Amino acid sequence: MRLALVLSEAANGLRRNASMVVSVVLVTFISLTFVGAAILMQMQIGQMKTFWYEKAQVGIYMCTDVSSGETCTGGEATQEQIDAVEEQLKSPTLAPFVDKYYFETHEQAFENFQAQFKGNPVADYVSPDQLNQTFWVNLIDPSQSDVLVESLSGQAGVENVADQRKYLDQIFSVLNVASYTAIGIAGLMLVAAALLIATTIRLSAFSRRRELGIMRLVGASNRFIQTPFILEGVFAALLGSLLAGGAIVAIVHFFVQGYLGVRLTGFSLVGIEDAILVVPILLVVGAVLAAFSANFAITRYLKV
Questions:
Q1: Would you put residue 256 in left (φ > 0), alpha (ψ -120 to 50) or beta?
Q2: All domains in the chain, ordered by first residue
Q3: Rounded alpha-carbon distances, angstroms, from residue 45 to 51, 87, 170, 272, 274
Q4: pLDDT per residue over 249-299, tens digit each?
Q5: I want to staple 41 with a disulfide (CB 3.0 to 4.6 A). Which of 179, 180, 221, 304 is the partner?
């Protein structure tokens, strides 16, 4: 009977403040959608790091006629210098770190360059001899690329030894900034949602001030008086959380998998299972945020 009375009071409050409840639902929905998007973006960055770091290679660029530097004083790398680098890769020092490697000639580099920059005017101004002959090395553990860099950087005929992971780090740093920006916006929206929930609860309590006075006179405890108001806030926030969870699942299904998945076949993208993992997080965040805000608002109101 006591529980039924509490739930009845909460339902009456929701009906009386329908417009404010709708605003709480919308603000919670928008803010938690940002939160879910930020979480998914972090998941996506993690998947991309795992996927691309495993594919990242170390490029050993041999000297060309136009190369400068102490190791390229003799002009283009000779066959002896190329063989010396290959011997190094096969040596007992480096072989334990190398998974596989292949050598790219001027002509192969030119074909790849033309395919990569097809339709770009720059492709018309590059000749095969201007492009480096390169050893492309896949490491067993890509994080140990410094071993190759230190061993081969100063060798005659080698212009440069570059780890592709350094270029990936720059890309991921940009993605992380975008993710942190989304988290910042979501944080501001959550603050707005908390303030709106608190305001809604205080207005709801004010509209029922006579009822609250009577309940106090008959000996109702503060907890009994507060609970319906807290339930109002939690219900509205949970509704917004469910909408946000549905939006996250829809975004992943229709945009990430349906649109991007078809066009970016070489990428590892987040899936529905990842989106489903995010939904409970949004529900918990919404419920806790509403319960805290409503409890704070009604407690301060009752003390006035």
A1: alpha
A2: 3-53+170-302 (no CATH), 56-168 (3.30.70.3040)
A3: 10, 37, 12, 16, 13
A4: 999 999 888 888 777 766 678 889 989 999 999 999 988 988 888 888 777
A5: 179
